[in-house]
Design goal:
The protein is α/β, with parallel strands linked by helices and 265 residues long. It contains ten helices and nine strands. The strands form two sheets. The chain has a five-stranded mixed beta sheet. Strands 7-6-8-9 form a four-stranded parallel beta sheet.
């Protein structure tokens, strides 16, 4: 696994950049990846195309967008870029616009960046850390903050008892987190969900799998619950299992409430 500070270097951090619209914002983030030798221009275009095809599901939390696309030959090595915008732009997300922070991911596969994703999700969950990142004066300062200790938000578990979730009757329940490509936003949601389950003491009772929209339709028959964005939920339609829309993929509090409702706690 690769650490966040290894994938997101000072070279790929840019602050107070001007973007005319969401496409320009993604191209700024993609341009940093290109300049660092992480990816080719074709990958930047693929990130833009993904939003055209799937909607603004990459806007994971208020003010935060996470553009990415599927691994391809246009990705030379796994890396990330960080663009703080001088003026927020609209991506079309009802819940989380406007966006002032764009973090792009280029990955060669679906697994090596999971540790970095978990760290990034934790950093963005912490309101004090997020405020520090918004106020940082330089790329070096942002990088130093990202190398700091992780923190978690204040969502509380339902209690100390480890009651058995009532799902599909298997030994362990199975929850899918779904996005358009199965390696970026779905991993963000998976990480936050697993943090909540661990706080509840349910980590050993429920398995969580991040996947893409195409695979989710086939995997739904073996799942007890699907968590995803509104855009992806509309694309999936009725897949035969409960589907819950999450607006803020970094919010343990929102996912805590969704699980309570789904498992009737």
């Amino acid at each position: 696994m690769t650490a966040l500070s290894d994938l997101l270097t000072q070279e790929t951090i840019a602050l107070d950049q001007e973007a005319e619209d969401w496409q320009d914002a993604i191209r700024l983030a993609g341009g940093l990846l290109e300049s660092a030798g992480v990816s080719a221009p074709a990958y930047t275009q693929a990130m833009v195309d993904s939003v055209h095809e799937n909607g603004p599901y990459i806007v994971l939390a208020p003010g935060f967008a996470f553009p990415h696309a599927r691994p391809s030959e246009a990705v030379h090595r796994t890396g990330m870029s960080w663009v703080r915008l001088a003026s927020p732009v609209e991506f079309g997300s009802r819940a989380n616009d406007p966006v002032n922070l764009v973090v792009a991911l280029a990955a060669t596969d679906t697994s090596t960046h999971q540790q970095a994703m978990a760290s990034l999700a934790t950093v963005l969950t912490d309101t004090e850390l997020r405020a520090s990142l918004d106020e940082a004066a330089s790329a070096a300062e942002v990088h130093a903050i990202l190398r700091g200790d992780d923190a978690t938000d204040s969502a509380s578990p339902p209690g100390t008892e480890r009651s058995r979730p009532q799902g599909g009757g298997r030994t362990r329940d199975h929850i899918l987190t779904v996005c358009g490509n199965g390696l970026g936003t779905s991993l963000f949601l998976k990480n936050t969900l697993e943090q909540v389950l661990d706080r509840w003491g349910w980590g050993g009772l429920i398995t969580v799998e991040a996947t893409d929209t195409v695979s989710a339709r086939g995997k739904a028959k073996d799942a007890d619950l699907i968590l995803t964005s509104g855009e992806i939920a509309r694309a999936l339609g009725d897949v035969g299992v409960p589907l819950v829309v999450i607006e803020n993929f970094t919010s343990q509090r929102e996912i805590d409430a969704a699980l309570r409702a789904s498992y009737d706690i």
